[in-house]
Amino acid sequence: MKLSKLFTKTAKENPKDEISVNAQLLERGGFIYKNSAGVYTFLPLGWRVIEKIAHIIREEMNKIGGVEMLMPALVEKRYLDATKRWDVDIGFEAKGKEEKKAGFVLGWTHEEVLTEIVSKFIGSYKDLPFAAYQIQTKFRNEPRAKSGLLRGREFMMKDLYSFHESEEDLWKYYDEVKEAYLRIFHRCGLEAIYTVAAGGDFTASNTHEFQVVAAVGEDTIFVCEKCGYAENSEISNLKTGDACPKCGGEMIEKKAIEVGNIFPLGTKYSKAFNLQFVNEAGKKDYVVMGSYGIGLGRTMGSVVEVHHDDNGIIWPESVAPFKIYLIALDGAKKEADEIYEKILHGGGEILYDDRDDKTAGEKFADADLIGCPLRLVISAKTLQEKSVEVKSRQERSAKLLPLTKVLDLLKY
Ligand code: ATP
Ligand code: MG
């Protein structure tokens, strides 16, 4: 992509109405646009990051047998009436005369919708187990939508639901999802802590959260220094300095962001929608379910909270909008054009700063703000060495790479 063709622009100053680092850097860099409190557009650069995260999530969900689908965002009242969740004060009611009469809410979760669908297809233990997921926009009337992508009123979620013939089978799969989630966050550059948490709206038993340590986090967790066992303060009786209930190590209090949450649902939804199957003994039984969520925007915001410096974002390569940021300086435009074409056609992801109306200093500042892993600079000076200058976003020093070797950059 050429910067001269990207309609968005970077900003030097932080937006006045944003207090969190992720919102400040993402808005300044032209990744997101704030339409309303807690409602953001993903601009071209930001959408590329979301797509990278979505791709990682899909790979890991598919590895544990998840099948992808897409449910409607408009959820009719009868679904939530069945589980007495219509009056839970989370959703936005959909506007419009007809819709109002029928009663629709903009979907804030989809247990009910999928359970009904599944009940039309499932009959026997032979149909179980299975798991289905979607990546979809959810709507929640959040009272505290002030931390950028961390808490939106409209946000993208990956929601997976699993269906089993027994609790035992659910717990087996629950563990597979846990491992898949840890892989997803690790691949996105986040070390998530598996944390025992409260039941929430969904279930009376414990749920489990994936927490990323960050000062901006709204959650407080206690983590064992030795074995990593963690509890959310909402359910914990522990305090800093206490002995870990698992290994006797020391528990430490931390602020953290919940990037994922998984829930054993038991038979709550299958009972509400009469989702039954005939077991091996020929008897009818209720399907046992689990549900598993990850916020894509919140994950992206967390990456920025964890990976930045005073000059801007430092994207992990796996989720960077582009691998390479190429800067053309005076006297090297033709050669820069050639490198851009060569890398683009070699399959590389390259953002080309070909703007004529920007100074070298402005281009360097934007390279740091946007935060691609590698910066290439080509100038009259580097051309004297028949080279291009290569610098990693994380390091201070740069190296010269011969022009004949630029395609080597695609190897990593
Ligand atoms: P929170 O406690 O932060 O309000 P939640 O427990 O209500 O979140 P879940 O229903 O568990 O949220 O949703 C699953 C995942 O969706 C969360 O782990 C988070 O990553 C994401 N998510 C939830 N609410 C929001 C939101 N308002 N904005 C962005 N992401 C969200
Ligand atoms: Mg949660």
Structural features:
binds magnesium ion, 412 residues, 11 helices, 23 strands, 5-stranded mixed beta sheet, 29% strand, binds adenosine-5'-triphosphate, alpha+beta, elongated, BirA Bifunctional Protein, domain 2, 2 domains, Rossmann fold
What does this molecule look like?
By secondary structure, the chain is an alpha+beta fold. The chain has 2 domains: 13-309, BirA Bifunctional Protein, domain 2, CATH 3.30.930.10; 322-411, 3-Layer(aba) Sandwich (Rossmann fold). It is built from 11 helices and 23 strands. The protein has helices at 21-28, 44-63, 77-82, 97-102, 111-119, 167-187, 268-272, 296-306, 333-345, 360-370, 380-384, and strands at residues 32-36, 39-42, 66-68, 74-76, 92-93, 104-106, 130-139, 154-164, 193-197, 207-213, 219-224, 230-232, 251-266, 276-278, 284-286, 288-295, 308-309, 312-313, 324-328, 350-353, 374-378, 387-392, 398-402. Strands 9-10-13-11-12 form a 5-stranded mixed β-barrel. The chain has a 5-stranded mixed beta sheet with strand order 20-19-21-22-23, with helices on both faces. Strands 4-6-5 form a 3-stranded antiparallel beta sheet. Strand 14 and strand 15 (284-286) form a beta hairpin. Helix 1 packs across helix 8, helix 2 (44-63) packs antiparallel against helix 6 and helix 2 crosses helix 8. The protein is elongated. The structure holds adenosine-5'-triphosphate and magnesium ion.
